[in-house]
Write a structure and sequence with these properties.
Elements: H1 2-13, E1 18-24, H2 25-30, E2 44-51, H3 55-67, H4 75-88, E3 97-100, H5 114-120, E4 125-127, E5 145-147, E6 156-167, H6 183-195, H7 214-221, H8 227-230
Antiparallel strand pairs: 1-2, 2-6, 3-6, 4-5
Helix pairs in contact: 3-4
């Protein structure tokens, strides 16, 4: 069942520049405090959805062109929501729950921890302070960051798809690719991400096979309120 669902998701999302990676809810819950647990049985099938560099041209620009008058908030969020809602329709006999990376619980905690989900699914390696043996940062707060073995930091984690009626007790967990394996590189990565994230150098910590286009870099570097004009949208749309 898991394989069939994965193939359907791959065929639906791949042409849009999106990836879906399977995991069991139990893998995710096992590494987090109870307050962050997903409220499903451990063997429940889930997928973490990533956007790759090609999503901008394959999904976002066509979506904006078609839905121009309906865009009232963030175009990327609306684009992903639109396409995942259509994917959901491909499983009429299944309950499919969708959680988006920007959604919050009433407690103001995120509905899910995106980077943890990507790591347990084997989609991208979540490098954290604990992955550095000789910690040079003292009392400074250091945030972790996911690196994709193909795209480096040129990707984003967008959503979870959960299939509550599908239990996969025998699903094997794929380890994420440890592509930043040296201590020196890990320190460099966390330094760049925490203290120089604006210049985006951390995204190229490894040799990548694809990165954002110049147009896409400009879009994401522009303050959200000003992005509408880059896509040919009026401020009224906002």
């Amino acid at each position: 069942m898991e394989r069939r669902v994965a193939e359907q998701l791959r065929s639906a999302l791949g042409p849009l520049g999106l990836e879906a990676h399977a995991f069991k809810v139990g893998w995710y819950n096992a590494v987090l405090q109870p307050t962050f647990h997903l409220p499903y049985p451990d063997d429940t099938l889930a997928f973490v959805v990533l956007s790759t560099p090609s999503m901008f041209d394959k999904a976002l620009k066509p979506f904006v062109s078609k839905e121009r008058l309906k865009i009232i908030r963030d175009p990327v969020d609306q684009c992903v929501s639109h396409h995942l809602s259509r994917v959901k329709e491909k499983f009429p006999d299944q309950r499919v729950d969708i959680m988006f990376d920007y959604e919050m619980l009433p407690s103001r905690k995120p509905k899910f921890l995106a980077q943890t989900a990507a790591h347990v699914a084997g989609a991208a390696y979540y490098y954290q302070r604990k992955d550095v043996k000789l910690d040079p940062w003292g009392k400074k707060k250091i945030f972790g960051v996911c690196i994709h073995p193909k795209y480096g930091g040129w990707f984003a984690i967008r959503a979870l798809l959960l299939f509550p009626a599908i239990q996969v007790p025998f699903l094997e967990q794929p380890p994420p690719v440890d592509c930043v394996s040296s201590e020196e590189k890990r320190i460099e990565l966390l330094e760049q991400f925490n203290f120089h994230w604006q210049d985006g150098r951390y995204r190229d910590i490894i040799e990548v096979k694809e990165r954002y286009s110049e147009e896409q870099k400009t879009y994401f570097a522009t303050p959200p309120a000003e992005r509408f004009r880059l896509l040919g949208l009026s401020q009224e749309a906002q």
